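Consider the record:
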Amino acid sequence: MPRIDLPGAAHLVLDAKVVHLDEAPAIFEKMIEGWGRQQQSRMLSAGTIEGRLLLIKRFMEFVGQYPWQWTSADVEDWTSSLLSRDEPCAHSTIRGYQNSLRLFMEYVTDPRYAWVEQCEKRFGEYPVQICHEWNTVEHLSEFEARPGVRPLTYEELQRFFDRCDQRVTDIRARKRKGATAALRDAQLYKTIYAWGLRRREAVRLDLVDLRANPYKKDWGRFGSLHVRYGKAVKGSAPRRRSVLSLPEFDWAIDGLRHYVSEVRPAFEPDKHPALWVTERRSRVAETYLDDRFTEIREEAGLPRELHLHCLRHSYVTHLIEFGYDERFVQEQVGHSYASTTAIYAGVSGDYKNGVIAKALDRVYKKEDQP
């Protein structure tokens, strides 16, 4: 096959004049470099590329051999090791790992990039695809979330938010610093729940993303949130959507208005655009949200299986229980498929009992009529 100057092609990465004393690790590093170039040409983000390259290096260290020596059995051994930890990886995590490994093997086995030719000439061996339907997660599980992931009950939500508010009171009583940050945190978590946001969507909100709703003018600029950093498809820009404020969560609207007018200025953000700012005039980090949620959850005595994303599960569930149309809920949370929204929903027994009571009343009342 004639040489094609594709980004990441072996002849563009390797220097024909260089003789490597230890050839195998040098060629592996060039493969990694080439795959990085190929992904850059596809407009993938630097974070995505870096994570994938590190994963391939970790797999190589686990196997103890190079890509031209890898086999399908290595994938099975690696997957088993990930599942046998004290805290096993989630199926969704393993699926992502295996997908990255599959993409790398597609790259090095594609004849247009000529890595097969280079490996056979140098080592007498060549790479082959090692990820197949029968040895990857897709074949093992249709739904990948942990069984323990669920919405919070109304009582658990109340306990969590009460603890958020109590932290402010406790800090003030001890006359310690941090009350303003605690006020911010409390409203941040309430906003995540009341608008059904992902963590990144929440922390990336700016003041300009607060929008009015012409049908509810007394809410002012808090009638909707313009989400500009929604979950993106790999290689695509973040998806945007408008999340309408809802009357069932008007208490959160009042809290957000108070935060913007009274709490946020206390951080002296100057011209920083972020809605959620820190004492150092920076944007609140995603990792901070997870860490603080865990602290508050433990203080509130809530189950360990509950994590930050469960607030979003709660939002979906409660909107269904409030009677909102499933298509409306799907648009609010930015799901591409209704099936994803259905997975998030975990309606309560009271709700289901109410539904069946209405059905019984509707059916049997007709039979009782003369």
